[in-house]
Specification:
Among the domains are: 1-121, no CATH class; 137-243, no CATH class; 414-603, no CATH class. Helices cover 61% and strands 1% of the residues. It contains 46 helices and 2 strands. Strand 1 and strand 2 form a beta hairpin. The longest helix has 20 residues, at 514-533. Residues 428-595 form the DUF7824 domain. This is Secreted protein.
Length: 873
């Protein structure tokens, strides 16, 4: 045994093989513990020269000395040996004298390891041949087989020739359709032309080497199962290469219908083509075509919807008897978000309405037409010969004004508070939950700190710093404010570590967000310090409402309780309370100011002055262009420079476009909601510092910045140029969730009567013109907003955005229209029709008067006709 271990440590593989051949099973088992110890020793040394020398011999010896199939498979497939394994041939040879059933067991266990283990395919297939077992059809084996057959080394003969030599070809090909995510690998090696995988599989099916029916069934089943488009693309290519015959197409009508309804667009288009061929030859019953049309016309893809409407027109032209069955499906087209698809559906009704025999069909189409704009609805009514119901005057349907939600009282016991803390640690920092929990921690730290620590220890036990005796408060700067408070409560932070210089040094790295994070952090810092030294009975700055606002009478009551108990005020906590107290209701503010002045304390006097001061005012603003972006700069706000702690004064400092943003460390989106609650009546000061982030969502395709917009829309203060410009960037964001957040903000501002449609529209026109916002993304946003019932609001925005976009389209030599402009005009025309818009749009008339029949000109004429007709009326 010692000689074997010496040979293994020296990396002498030939000697290892020789020694293993002369050992009995019992002798091999005795050496296993030493092999395991050596393997453990090498884990930290695997990348060294010694590791690369020793690991192959260790891999081989361990595979030979283990006796159980599970242990051998685990050893052979271990990731320790991934980069320095024994050769597959030697591993196969060392197991060749074992029982064949045992080898088969090892083989299948190896094949069941994840593909990330990178078990060599040569090893698995060699063991399959040695044991004559059935081929494994696991992810690892099938993907290994794909790479093996397609590899450069195998470029002898065609792919079809190599596949013919596979004795278990049918089983492996069948597995291609069963294994998830194998499509990406197959697509990567598929190739093109006659020697590609799709063409080769189709050729083998023609020859009978593969059963054609099984190949078709496998393809269809895999496509029906769905998945990522990249995974499905190659299976569609295989299906197209096999080319189902007419009989095979008829046998699978239900499958094609399901694919046309729910599959990825490329797959659905192919299924739609097969069904269309059957429909045009009369082999697809009208009932089946109607079922298919219901599904396809519901899809958002215009290409599929347009093709289906064309198909319906052709079928009805061939056989008028299908009108009663097929025309009701147009109800789906009437509800399509694109007005072009709606109009195509209306034209079909106009063309074939005379062939409708059942009154119920007319009633159904008439009811469905309620989804259309007034112009199209009138056309449907005229075609059907029904009396159109008088349409009531248009009424804008905006969402209800958000109602402020009062924060619940802080939990009264340490156990309840610990549950709240656990939920916050698990789910992130919800502002309302954070503020009430913070207040609860301060209250419990004041009233019963020992019970609080006992309740919190199990909740905080998973946090890494709990294993340390002490940890510096500066380690928690940023998004871990709750953890800093917990560390203070649990006595993990030394009181002397809360020197203000530590906080200021760590937060001076200047970027546009620094004043916001610095004010938030310094408040938490001082609260944590007071928990160590002299915890107050409660906080002054806990919001009354979810927006961050504090009712002035409530703040006066808190100061009165502090005065009665002779509690020392936390300066930053009081500063935050001042910034949160509600001043927009001047009558309530003056009444509370009288009570505050009567307290006779410095804080009461300061609050009285604050409540009666003019404000909240906005600093002067200046627009700046930085590349494709339009940004804002704000001047100094003196109101925040006086009588506030040093770390709060930067909130009133000037905001510049070219600040030191390259050192920004505020990458965590969880911080933004806390910033909005910092200045709940000065949302412009927050918005201007987030404009660069919001522009990144549109220009650089970043994700998540726009989630703050609905919260800012619900906040107080003037909705000025910064917020409107931020909403404009959000409407043009790359990601759908950001666009939805911007639409929510737009609708909230409109519902509150705070939306400046002219300002927002002008900003959008400028941003589209500069390339910062893509029209196609803006189309999705405004169409979504209009679909909620806000047609007048959307029209009010677009009428000011379109002039800048139509300027280049109205001359004698118009520029190429930006992608999405025709769709934007279509949305504008639809909103104008629905809302009864009047007036004119600069450059629209000259654009509409140009010669041609492009979609841009068609929609421009439609919009102009709507506006002119309204004026004439």
């Amino acid at each position: 045994m010692s000689s074997l271990m010496d040979a293994v440590r020296a990396g002498r593989i030939a000697q290892v093989v020789s020694l293993l051949d002369g050992m009995t099973d019992s002798e091999r088992r005795l050496v296993v513990p030493e092999l395991k110890a050596l393997r453990k020793e090498l884990r930290a040394d695997r990348w060294s020269e010694r590791g690369r020398r020793v690991l192959p011999s260790l891999h081989l010896a361990g595979s030979a000395c283990q006796t159980g199939a599970a242990a051998v498979a685990s050893w052979m497939g271990a990731t320790d040996f991934m980069w320095a394994p024994a050769s597959p041939k030697r591993l196969i040879d060392i197991l060749a004298d074992r029982d064949l059933d045992w080898i088969a067991d090892v083989t299948h266990r190896l094949a069941q390891r994840p593909t990330s283990a990178r078990v060599p395919f040569q090893l698995m297939t060699g063991l399959v041949q040695l044991s004559a077992c059935r081929v494994p059809t696991t992810d690892a084996y099938v993907q290994g087989w794909l790479m093996h057959v397609s590899g450069d080394w195998a470029r002898v003969g065609s792919l079809a020739d190599r596949l013919r030599q596979e004795p278990q070809l049918a089983e492996l090909v069948a597995a291609l359709f069963e294994i998830d995510d194998v499509g990406q690998t197959l697509g990567w090696v598929a190739g093109d032309g006659r020697n590609s995988w799709p063409s080769s599989l189709a050729r083998l099916a023609e020859e009978g080497a593969l059963e054609r029916k099984s190949l078709l069934d496998g393809c269809v089943a895999r496509l029906l199962r769905g998945g990522r488009p990249a995974d499905l693309r190659v299976f569609l290519r295989v299906l197209q290469a096999v080319a189902p015959t007419s009989e095979e197409q008829r046998e699978r009508v239900a499958d094609w219908t399901a694919l046309a309804a729910d599959a990825a667009s490329t797959v659905a288009a192919y299924a739609q083509t097969l069904l269309a061929a059957l429909a045009l030859t009369g082999e697809l019953p009208h009932r089946r075509l109607a079922e298919m049309s219901e599904a396809v016309l519901f899809r958002p893809e215009k290409t599929l919807v347009r093709a289906q409407l064309v198909l319906l027109g052709k079928v009805l032209a061939q056989d008028a008897s299908g009108a009663d069955t097929l025309l009701p499906t147009l109800a789906q087209a009437f509800g399509h978000p694109d007005s072009e698809m709606q109009e195509r559906g209306v034209k079909l009704v106009e063309r074939h309405a005379s062939r409708i025999g059942e009154q119920g069909v007319r009633d159904e189409l008439s009811a469905a037409a309620e989804q259309l704009s007034p112009v199209l609805r009138s056309r449907v009514a005229e075609a059907l010969g029904v009396v159109e119901v008088t349409v009531e005057e248009y009424e804008e349907n905006l969402p209800p004004v958000p109602v402020p939600v009062r924060l619940a009282p802080a939990p009264r016991s340490g156990v309840e508070l610990a549950e709240e803390v656990g939920a916050l640690l698990a789910s992130g920092d919800d502002v309302s939950a954070f503020e009430r929990t913070l207040d609860g921690l301060v209250r419990q730290a004041h009233s019963d700190p020992a019970a609080l620590r006992q309740a919190l220890e199990p909740v905080a036990s998973h946090l890494p710093w709990t294993t340390f005796d002490t940890i510096l408060p500066s380690d928690f700067i940023g998004h871990r404010n709750l953890e800093l408070i917990l560390a203070a409560v649990l006595r993990k932070t030394p009181p002397q570590g809360f020197h203000p210089a530590h906080l200021n040094t760590s937060s001076r790295a200047g970027c546009v967000h620094t004043p916001l994070s610095r004010a938030c952090n310094t408040r938490i810092w001082e609260i944590a310090h007071r928990i160590h030294t002299d915890p107050p009975p409660f906080l002054l700055s806990t919001p009354t409402w979810h927006t961050g606002l504090i009712e002035p009478d409530e703040l006066v009551d808190r100061l009165d309780a502090y005065r009665a108990a002779d509690v020392r005020v936390i300066a930053t906590d009081f500063a935050q309370a001042l910034l949160r107290v509600r001043r927009e209701d001047r009558a309530s503010a003056r009444a509370a100011a009288e009570r505050a002045a009567a307290l006779g304390t410095p804080e009461g006097t300061r609050l009285a002055e604050w409540l009666t001061a003019d404000g909240p005012a906005l600093p002067t603003a200046r627009r700046r262009v930085a590349g494709p972006r339009v940004l804002l700069e704000f001047g100094e706000l003196n109101e925040l420079q006086r009588d506030f702690p040093p770390d709060f004064r930067p909130l009133g400092s000037p905001v510049t476009v070219y600040g030191d943003r390259w050192h920004c460390y505020h990458w965590d989106g969880d911080l933004r909601p806390h910033w909005s609650a910092l200045l709940p009546e000065r949302r412009e000061l927050i918005a201007v510092r987030l404009l660069r982030d919001l522009s990144d969502a549109a220009v650089d395709d970043d994700r998540g910045a726009a989630e703050i917009l609905p919260r800012l829309a619900e906040s107080g203060g003037e909705a000025g140029p910064a917020l409107h410009l931020g909403v404009a960037y959000g409407l043009g964001a790359r990601h759908a969730e950001d666009r939805l957040a911007a639409v929510d903000a737009l609708l909230v501002l409109a519902a509150r009567g705070q939306l400046d449609a002219e300002r927002l529209g002008t900003d959008l026109g400028e941003l589209v013109g500069s390339g910062a916002v893509k029209p196609s993304r803006l189309v999705d946003s405004v169409r979504t907003a209009a679909a909620t019932g806000a047609s007048a609001t959307v029209w009010g925005i677009l009428r000011h955005a379109l002039p800048a976009l139509l300027d280049d389209q109205s001359g004698e030599r118009p520029a190429a229209p930006p992608r999405g402009l025709p769709d934007l005009l279509a949305v504008a025309a639809d909103c104008a029709e629905r809302s009864g818009a009047r007036g004119d749009v600069p450059h629209l008339a000259r654009t509409a008067e140009r010669r041609g029949s492009s979609r841009l000109l068609t929609q421009a004429r439609r919009l102009r006709s709507t506006l002119v007709a309204e004026v004439a009326a």
